[in-house]
Amino acid sequence: QVQLVESGGGLVQAGGSLRLSCAASGRTFSTDAMQWFRQAPGKEREFVAAIGWTAGSTYYADSVKDRFTISRDNTKHTVYLQMNALKPDDTGVYYCNEGPHWGQGTQVTVSS
């Protein structure tokens, strides 16, 4: 059973940066794409970014393009989300996803 554990969330002022990590365990890191989603209070969960196995293919929601960068280290079974120029609208719980597997989420709060 795959387990995904997110970390790196916190409270930051607008314009600041955070780096989220998602560590996978339980079996060999798959070749599936890894994704980040987020859910703001009272809103549906939304796609943020995705990365393919080779890391050569990345995809971003328009709202985070040019501010967020997704990357992965297959030797460490870890996916990262570098978030720069954060805005209050980026506030929410950030979830890591691989196929049917989800992490427990990490809270990101951006103050204005």
Task: State the end-to-end distance.
Answer: 40 Å
Question: Would you tell me the overall average pLDDT?
Answer: 93
How many separate helices? 0
Strand count, sense and closure of the main sheet? 7 strands, mixed
Beta-strand percentage range: over 45%
The residue fraction in helices comes out at under 10%
Q: Give me the strand/helix succession.
A: EEEEEEEEEEE
Query: Given the C-alpha coordinates, what overall shape results?
Result: globular
Radius of gyration: 13 Å
Please mark out the parts with pLDDT under 50 across 5 or more consecutive residues, or reply none. none
Instruction: Label the structural class.
Output: mainly beta
* Number of DSSP strand runs: 11
Question: Would you kindly provide a written description of the structure presented here, covering whatever features stand out?
Answer:
The mean pLDDT is 93. The strands form two sheets. Strands 2, 4, 5, 6, 9, 10 and 11 form a seven-stranded mixed β-sheet that branches. Strands 1-3-8-7 form a four-stranded antiparallel β-sheet, with no helix packed on it. β9 (92-98) and β10 (101-102) form a beta hairpin. The chain is globular and about 40 Å long. With 112 residues, the chain is an all-beta fold. It is built from no helices and eleven strands.
